[in-house]
Amino acid sequence: MQGSKTRLIVVTVALFGASLIGCTVHNHPAPPLDQPQPQSQRQPQAPAVHNARTAPATRNAIAPGPLPRPAPPPAPPAAAGRGYTIKPGDNLWNISKEMYGDGTKYQRILDANPGLNPDNMKPGTRIVIP
Fold first, then answer.
1. Whole-angstrom Cα Rg for the chain
2. Which residues have CB under 8 Å from 87's CB, separation 6+?
3. Rounded-to-integer distance, Cα 62 and Cα 49, Å
4. Fewest beta carbons less than 10 Å away: which of 29, 112, 121, 127?
5. What burial letters (b/e) apply to 2-33, b meaning 16+ CB within 10 Å?
6. What are the two backbone dihedrals, phi and then psi, of residue 95, each rounded to the nearest 5 degrees?
């Protein structure tokens, strides 16, 4: 009785394993390894594509090309106005008072120079006075 159970298990495993070897695209069994395929049935192999992204392995899949590079950010528009070089001891209030005659208009200078830090204005830095 023990020998027949073992034989049944071996046959079942052999049949199940053989069904896993079949071709998954067309559901045809794989040809025996000792018989070469006829020339007419051989499929040409595509060259290997080495890409960061790979397409899913489907029959109609097209391998993606290289990813497009993002466009560089646009340059800030050139501000129209006069140029001014910051001197030691300058602050926005004093520059505004000198240029406009009114220190309260310092926000116009700050808006025209988006990278300017009013708490750390370095002498020699060129700014735009609108």
1. 38
2. 123
3. 11
4. 29
5. eeeeeeeeeeeeeeeeeeeeeeeeeeeeeeee
6. -65, -45
CA 24 from chain centre, in angstroms, equals 32
CA dist 22 and 25 (Å) reads 9
Short-list 85, 94, 96, 77, CA closest to 127: 85
Confidence label for 3 from pLDDT (cuts 50, 70 and 90): low
Bridge partners (DSSP) of residue 85 are 126
Read off the pLDDT of residues 95-126 as tens digits, 9 standing for 90 and up.
999 999 999 999 999 999 988 999 999 999 99
Q: Which amino acid is at 79?
A: A
CA distances from 127 to 60, 84, 103 (A): 58, 5, 17
Distances (CA, A) of 28 to 70, 96, 114, 121: 45, 84, 68, 76
Q: Classify residue 44 by its DSSP letter.
A: P
Cα(91)–Cα(95) distance, rounded to whole angstroms?
6
